[in-house]
UniProtKB/TrEMBL annotation, chain A:
PANTHER family: COPROPORPHYRINIGEN III OXIDASE (PTHR13932), RADICAL S-ADENOSYL METHIONINE DOMAIN-CONTAINING PROTEIN 1, MITOCHONDRIAL (PTHR13932:SF5). NCBIfam families: hemN_rel. It comes from Hominenteromicrobium mulieris. Belongs to the anaerobic coproporphyrinogen-III oxidase family. HemW subfamily. One of its GO terms (biological process) is porphyrin-containing compound biosynthetic process. The keyword Methyltransferase does not apply. It holds the Pfam family Radical_SAM. One of its GO terms (molecular function) is coproporphyrinogen oxidase activity. This is Heme chaperone HemW. It is found in: Cytoplasm. The keyword Ribosomal protein does not apply. Coiled coil: none annotated.
TrEMBL record, chain B:
It is found in: Cell membrane. Residues 4-186 form the Tr-type G domain. It comes from Hominenteromicrobium mulieris. This is Elongation factor 4. It catalyses: GTP + H2O = GDP + phosphate + H(+). The gene is lepA. GO terms for biological process: positive regulation of translation.
Length: 370, 600
């Protein structure tokens, strides 16, 4: 009796590369690369369909890169192939990321017809100056129009991305972005703290970034403001109106199984982790994924669970691991001397507060075994 | 060997005035070393000596020189350590000689150790042969320096050889001076044996090899010898002559000669520098004068950075001690640092050398605590204590009298830095004694300075205030009453024993201030706020706060890449292992080291 699994499809193409982004993407330089990529994805879907076709698939997520660059038709062709190869649940959550600059009503209508029912809109900020620094191709107005277009096409589950700790940002600029999300009536907000990744253009620039305290203040402010607008935090960086939590996201944090296709996409199936290398050409040529060792051990499970507000729960530990109760107790012991403002820990559940999420790396290093 | 054809001498000099280079040239001239074996400064055996350009241990070599008079002379050249820490060793090496070649840099003139070493040589009754070196330098002024030698030291220097040890110029003149000016040894080979040990080292195969100067009598393999101060007896296995790159066995050593003795001695403590060797069945009535057991003056805690290497550290210290009778150590436990050793050293340089050798030759990662001198405490009940470890410092209410060691310090410097130097000495609680002009633009400034003000970083501070021109020498003159306090450092309310130190009451506040500031800078933010406090007897005199960490989070997981996050977590856990856990606070090892160097 297998639990349902999830599918991630990576679309590694962008029209322009954002200076902060470390996700794998290539510029579509050859005319036929989209079609070759479509074919490569379909071929992989056929291979894994053989293997997992019988199992219930309950979320599909197209991420990037910029999936909207790939075109609504191709996205639908891939989804069609998914449905052909896998046992997709009736109520499956099927999401694609979009750049608001790429979309219009007909785009979303095509997606809707193909079966998509959730959109993740790359907004990042509602302030034009910030969007410019981030190298985005759109304005705040573009985002508003894109969200309205999705709704017009009857896709009514819309998430927007927001970034915290941006260059030159402060609580005021952040508040205006959050108010914008609320005014859009977005169902879900992902709010990520900007991390300067080595090798990105941002890493080489002199940026006026808020300091550790300033960024932490922004995060806590965001948690609070979003709550005021009815978005409850359910994960370190994710907030949702009731019932609109991303099931695909939860699959990762609850240590569920997922298959990831495309260069740089990671998978966790049947206890093994594996990934396709960051190499588009290799993927197009049918290279096999790289094994990344066993997954799903207790430390990993606890580490992922503690990203969620629901936290690490004794009952689930006991069901999932042979000595789950003792393992839970071990973590609980480590929590004892941690300051109360960072963590709630009782017999049933251990969970981090918003302040705790901010320093979760240090807390995990403190309380997790091995 | 005919006594009249023997010359026993040392070369003495201030650091960098060319002592070792001259020794090399003399070796070449006598062809003691084949050219192909000639490495620069061959007498400096240790890598460390070569790198630092200083001599740490005494070395000796026997050479044959054919002089202008057609005779062959045996030269016993005894190289001496060039640092105040090793003054006692220097004095014993000099006691093995009849003369000393005084090398003075003709561009620099007389420096602190020139004088200190010359006085030692004169005290030992040696004939001093001055040599002006580095005359190839454009800045050399041999006439001026010769006059300086005559004025300040009071020995004729008019016809001192003017040489360049570097280029080999006039070395022959030095050799001839040694023959003509330094007296041949005297001493009756038939008297009861008296041999002075001027150095010893431990050889894994033969045990201790004692370097000796036979003053009277004769020694042969098979003789039973007695160490007159230590009292132990051994049977001589071998005796012989010290060649430049090997030991050459001989049938005997007799009065006037310099050589080595092996006798299956297990530890250099049994063959102490300065002790007199005599024969067990025909002992001398009196030992040679001047022996004293060396006393460490500076102490610090030495801990392995990784507690698992405690046994390795102990083994390494034991091995070093085989060769270094002045090094002491005993086990010590610190709440902060775990198991380690309280080590005693002759001085700061000795301490640095030992630490460096432990790290280099034994591959140990060390944490050391602040160096301390030995304080004399008289308690209210009349008991007297010697305290070299702040941990043992008694409660202030039980102290009737606290005394600290005082040094007589001479600083030689160009006149332009006098103001800076006096300011520094004043700041270090120095008492000005007098100031003498060596010539129109150089002075000898004489201060009495507490030793604990010298051992931190006095020399560095002096160098930076005089652009490296000042030289410095000191000797301990005794103990003096002092207002001492023990300063403790608390992290999150708990005293960190490894950071405590004893200090003069007046200096406590500024030092406490610097300590807490430095610690604040070095201790990374933790999950909670960490107060860093300095206190004296429970009273807090300085405080800083390491604010709680605010942000350490991986906001995003890329494409389900859990492995990346797992690796980050593992790395973080590894990082924690390198920290010292003090109560609930994690302190990086650099923090312990950083507070030792507060004035950088």
């Amino acid at each position: 009796m297998n639990k349902p699994f999830s599918l991630y499809i990576h679309i590694p193409f962008c029209k322009s590369k954002c200076p902060y982004c470390d996700f794998y993407s290539a510029r579509p330089e050859e005319d036929d690369v989209f079609d070759r990529y479509l074919a490569a994805l379909c071929a992989r879907l056929a291979v894994y369909g053989e293997k997992y076709g019988e199992r219930l698939l309950h979320t599909v997520y197209f991420g990037g890169g910029t999936p909207s660059v790939f075109g609504a038709k191709r996205l639908c062709r891939v989804l069609e192939k998914v449905k052909e190869q896998f046992n997709v649940a009736e109520n499956a959550e099927i999401t694609t990321e979009c750049n608001p600059a790429d979309v219009d009503v007909s785009f979303f209508e095509t997606l809707k017809r193909g079966g998509f029912n959730r959109i993740s809109m790359g907004m990042q900020s509602a302030n034009e100056a910030e969007l410019k620094i981030l190298g985005r191709r759109h304005t705040a107005e573009t985002v508003r129009e894109a969200v309205e277009a999705a709704r017009e096409a009857s896709i009514d589950n819309v998430s927007v991305d927001l970034m915290l700790g941006l260059p030159n940002s402060n609580l005021e600029t952040l508040k205006s972005s959050i108010d914008f999300c609320a005014a859009l009536e977005a169902d879900h907000v992902s709010a990520y703290i900007l991390k300067i990744e080595p090798g990105t253009p941002f890493a080489k620039q002199e940026l006026n970034l808020p300091d550790e305290d300033g960024t932490a203040d922004q995060y806590l402010f965001a948690v609070n403001e979003l709550k005021k607008h009815g978005y409850a935090q359910y994960e370190i960086s994710n907030f949702a109106r009731p019932g609109k939590e991303s099931r695909h996201n939860l699959q990762y944090w609850r240590c569920g199984e997922y298959l990831g296709l495309g260069p740089a996409a990671h998978s966790f199936m049947e206890g093994r982790r594996f990934y396709f290398p960051r190499d588009l050409e290799g993927f197009l040529n049918g290279n096999v994924p790289t094994d990344d060792g066993a997954g799903g051990g207790f430390s990993e499970f606890a580490m992922l669970s503690l990203r969620l507000t629901e936290g690490l729960q004794r009952k689930i530990c006991e069901t999932r691991f042979e000595n789950g109760g003792a393992l839970f107790d071990g973590v609980l012991e480590g929590c004892k001397h941690l300051p109360k403002n960072l963590i709630h820990a009782d017999y049933e559940r251990i969970s981090l507060t918003a302040e705790g999420f901010l320093v979760s790396n240090a807390i995990l290093a403190e309380i997790l075994p091995g | 060997m005919e006594q009249s054809k023997i010359r026993n001498f040392s070369i003495i000099a201030h650091i960098d005035h060319g002592k070792s280079t001259l020794a090399d040239r003399i070796l070449e001239q006598t062809e003691a070393v084949a050219k192909r074996d000639m490495e620069d400064q061959i007498l400096d055996n240790m890598d460390l000596e070569r790198e630092r350009g200083i001599t740490i241990k005494a070395h000796a070599v026997t050479l044959v020189y054919r002089a202008n008079d057609g005779e062959a002379y045996t030269f016993n050249l005894i190289d001496t350590p060039g640092h105040v820490d090793f003054n006692y060793e220097v004095s014993r090496s000099l006691a093995a000689c009849e003369g000393a070649v005084l090398v003075v840099d003709a561009s620099q003139g007389i420096e602190a150790q020139t004088l200190a070493n010359t006085y030692l040589a004169v005290d030992a009754g040696l004939e001093v042969v001055p040599v002006l070196n580095k005359i190839d330098l454009i800045s050399a002024d041999p006439d001026k320096v010769a006059a300086e030698i005559e004025d300040v030291i009071g020995i004729p220097a008019e016809d001192a050889p003017r040489i360049s040890a570097k280029t080999g110029l006039n070395i022959k003149a030095v050799m001839e001076k040694i023959v003509t000016d330094i007296p041949a040894p005297q001493g009756d080979p038939d008297m009861p044996l008296r041999a002075l040990i001027f150095d010893s080292y431990y050889d894994a195969y033969r045990g201790v090899i004692a370097y000796v100067r036979i003053k009277e009598g004769t020694v042969h393999p098979g003789d039973t010898i007695r160490m007159m101060a230590v009292g132990s007896e051994f049977t001589v296995v071998e005796c012989g002559i010290l060649r430049a790159t090997s030991l050459e066995p001989a049938k005997s050593l007799s009065a006037g000669e310099v050589g080595y003795i092996t006798a299956s001695i297990k530890n250099v403590r049994e063959a102490r520098v300065g002790d007199t060797i005599t024969l067990a069945d025909r002992p001398a009535a009196e030992p040679l004068p001047g022996y004293r057991a060396v006393q460490p003056m500076v102490f610090c805690g030495v801990y392995p950075a990784d507690g698992a290497h405690y046994a390795d550290l102990r083994d390494a210290l034991e091995k070093l001690q085989l060769n270094d009778a002045a090094l002491t150590f005993e086990p010590e436990t610190s709440v902060a640092l775990g198991f380690g050793f309280r080590c005693g050293f002759l001085g700061l340089l000795h301490m640095e050398i030992i630490q460096e050798r432990l790290e280099r030759e034994y591959n140990l990662d060390l944490i050391t605590t602040a160096p301390s001198v030995v304080y004399h405490i008289t308690k209210t009940d009349g008991t007297k204590l010697s305290i070299d470890n702040p941990t043992n410092y008694p409660d202030p209410s039980h102290i009737a009298l606290a005394e600290e060691p005082i040094a007589n310090a001479h600083i030689y410097s160009p006149t332009e830095f006098v103001g800076n130097i006096m300011e520094l000495c004043q700041d270090r609680r120095g008492i000005f004694k007098d100031m003498k002009y060596i010539d129109t633009d150089r002075v000898d400034i004489h201060y009495e300075l507490p030793l604990n003000e010298i051992i931190y970083d006095f020399f560095d501070a002096l160098k930076s205030r005089t652009r490296g021109y000042a030289s410095f020498d000191y000797e301990l003159i005794g103990y003096r009453k002092s207002e001492l306090v023990k300063l403790d450092i608390m992290l999150n309310g708990e005293v960190v024993d490894a950071l405590s130190f004893i200090i003069h009451a007046e200096k406590a506040y500024p030092r406490a201030r610097k300590m807490v500031e430095k610690l604040k800078e070095k201790i990374p933010r933790q999950l909670f706020e960490v107060p860093v406090q300095a206190c004296i007897g429970g009273k807090i005199i300085a405080r800083e706060t390491v604010k709680a960490m605010r942000k350490d989070v991986l906001a995003k997981c890329y494409g389900g890449d859990i492995t990346r996050k797992k690796k980050l977590l593992e790395k973080q856990k590894e990082g924690k292992k390198r920290m010292r856990q003090l109560g609930t606070v994690e302190v990086p090892q650099e923090a312990f080291m950083a507070v030792l160097k507060l004035d950088e």
